[in-house]
Amino acid sequence: MTGRVEVAIVGAGFAGIGMALALQRAGRESFVVLERAASVGGTWRENVYPGVACDVPSHLYGFATHPHPHWSGLYARGDEIHRYLQDVAAGAGLGGRLRLSTPLLQARWDAAAAAWQLDTPDGALTAETLVLACGRLTEPQIPEISGLETFPGPLFHSARWDQDADLRGARVAVVGTGASAVQLVPELARTAGHVTLFQRTPAWIVPRGAVAYSDADRAGFAADPAVLAALRADLYAEGEARFASRSGDPVAAADARAVALAHLHAQVEDPALRAALTPDYAFGCKRVLLSDAFYPAVASTAVTLEPHALTAVEGRTLVAANGTRHEVDAVVLATGFASTRQPYADLVHGEAQTLADHWSTGMTSFASTVVAGFPNMFVLNGPNASLGHSSSVLMMEEQASYVVRALAHGDQEGMPVRRVRPEAEQAYTDEIAVAAASTPWIAGGCHNWYVDERSGRLALLWPGTVDAFRARLAAADGAEFLSTPTPATLGGIP
């Protein structure tokens, strides 16, 4: 694969496909999408563990330009979402632009060519603009536990599910009680011989209230797009309203906390077990989870809750922090991802350093999308572009729109090289820090994956509503970029 394109997109999950759709709508046809795997789908291709599903309403978890009337219910299964992304890519005619099984090996800014030089296993590619759409939850976080590597049975991360491992009737340990574990444990409890759940920190869990859509519902959505649009608008408004409880509004947070505690008390009778499952930090500090099945599973005889972290592995014996020992046949690590240290950052070399070096004290950007020292580069779903209250797809769409506007602005101004002013990035970083300072994510008394431990800054979440993010990006008028002469003015290649 050789040649030159206007835009190279790295990643074919929601962000990468959304970026490709935005370029198409803008009439920009010179682009390719590099994808390391054999199919599109990102998170929803990688995560195939039992029970995997979205915890955002399905009709809000899709592209605004590609509504899908056929979701099975209020919350879509993981395989449905994967199919949706495959169908969108095929329907938009992206097949010819997709470079599947083509991982990015290195990207280096070439000042003389005013372009990015990309290395892949299929050869080199020159791109005037680089869009990193690699996702934030792609690299499993494997905890450092003494003896873990010596465990003799099946051992794998939930995001790298071993389809050959037969867990039926087995004694299975699940390490972690985050979003994946809450979905996974009830499924394992039905088939495994016994499940031992290692909980370092309990989660706030609220009712899921999953609703299955009937054939009539789906037919109605398909027959009348206005009905589907109205449902999406309602779901959007509900999501925006949820921001108050997640971000620390005292009344909203107290109400939501009461709902979570009532849910716990209704589903777990044992006072000691309830106490072990009750968080001691502010509501919203960690990701709030949705489940109607987790508490009943943990309260059943099929599951043993170990309310301490796993600290050592001795053969088939797992040792908790309090010294309790558990004999198991298999271990599933539901331990999250390297969210604040993106693996792709080591591969990207800007004007003076790698992206990993630039982010060595935490991810920073302007508009959650562009980074000083990395000309003509955009990052989707990166610094401060996640949400704790609504659909992350909404954020990706806004970022893709910002990219298209920035490209158009550069064309209009005769500015083929768009360099972000360092002071613009710093001001945006300071703006985020001020907005986040009093929120539960910073001051709520927990350790979460939103905050970078190296800096103590909120690195992943946007500390506002989707409306606010849309307005913030809309206000960016190009002043964030340095004025750069055209190559002809510099005497370079036109």
UniProtKB/TrEMBL annotation:
Keyword annotations from UniProtKB, A to Z: Monooxygenase, Oxidoreductase
Keyword Oxidoreductase found: yes
A GO molecular function held by the record: monooxygenase activity
UniProt KW Oxidoreductase keyword: yes
Name recorded for this polypeptide: Monooxygenase
Phylogenetic classification of the source organism: Bacteria, Bacillati, Actinomycetota, Actinomycetes, Micrococcales
